[in-house]
Description:
The chain is built from 18 helices and no strands. With 359 residues, the chain is mostly helical.
Amino acid sequence: VDDPPLYYWDYLRLDQLLGCQDLESARRGELARDEMMFIVTHQAFELWFKQILWELDAVNERMGQDIVPEREMGQVVAGLRRIVTIQRLLGDQLEVLETMTPLDFLDFRDLLIPASGFQSVQFRLIENRLGLRRRLKIKGSPYTSVLRPEHVEMLDRSEHEPSLLDHVERWLERIPFLRFGSFDFWQAYRDAAEQMLARERRTIQMHPNLDERARAEQLAQFEETAETFEALFDAEQYERLRARGKRRLSYQAFLAALLITLYRDEPILQLPFRLLTGLVDVDEGFTTWRHRHALLAHRMIGDKIGTGGTSGHSYLEAATQKHRVFADLFDLPTFLLPRKALPKLPPQVAEQMSFRYTP
Ligand code: HEM
């Protein structure tokens, strides 16, 4: 009660926050003016990474419950929404760096070696909390090889904790609508899907704008898609795709995600569908950021290696392609059927999936 009135400067600890921009170039007596902007931008990134981790922890805590109460789903979706909003901001923040010309960057770049964004522990924690596990190696070594022991330990621990991908997988596996009593949904879906595939194969075979070579290529590609359809109805074939790294979610979880996507018009599947969409948005947000950052690196340093020792922009582009967590969800539209071709749900199932207020 006797506390002095709170003061803005103290509350935000601005002594610390504004007192920690130490320019390496100034320390060496060769001030490079742009280094201030370089440090401030990176620090701003790390603050936003902190906020993303804060939101992710809350999402993981809710999704990690044995049963996720329906009333908490809205909070999970809202948390993902906030992460996506921050990601957009992070993309724009890169533009501030782009106001620095490559020549100005050269004034202090070499002073940074061997430090690099590659050592951003918070960025790695975000990746691990989301569920990224298989990474590109640099010169045969894991990403942790360039970090201090206390950071390696922190990251090792986070790799062994259940990730958002793990929680979502378990939640999907519990979705009760995968079996519909006596109604064989998956057989009905398979019949409808086979008709659709036959139509698409015919379209390629008959298409007037394709020459023989293009037609053969299109058909080969089509047969690959048809194979992934087969894997939907055959758990063993699905597992083979998984072993090849083409899928990450378990068979049960993938089917549940497909069902939610197909029947998202049913009221009870609305929030689950928005959750899946939120995960797609987050994955897209990071992928977009990685791509923009790779372009930034290219325009800043050309084909040079990074200060951290990777091949530079080509490493970053490869990571953009490979370091995806929820790619399975991006593949789902392959298996969508037009609404009019979807098997109709039995009335008692449709009833269970709707909301009804009984006074
Ligand atoms: C002039 C600006 C920048 C350049 C030229 C640049 C360049 C690079 C390069 C070449 C790498 C690959 C690792 C290496 O060999 O060093 C890298 C990695 C990375 N940078 Fe930057 N960067 C810049 C700004 C930023 C900013 C503002 C951030 C925000 C924190 C950032 C975060 C990262 C992260 C997280 C990685 C690791 C990416 C991964 O391994 O997937 N960078 N950067």
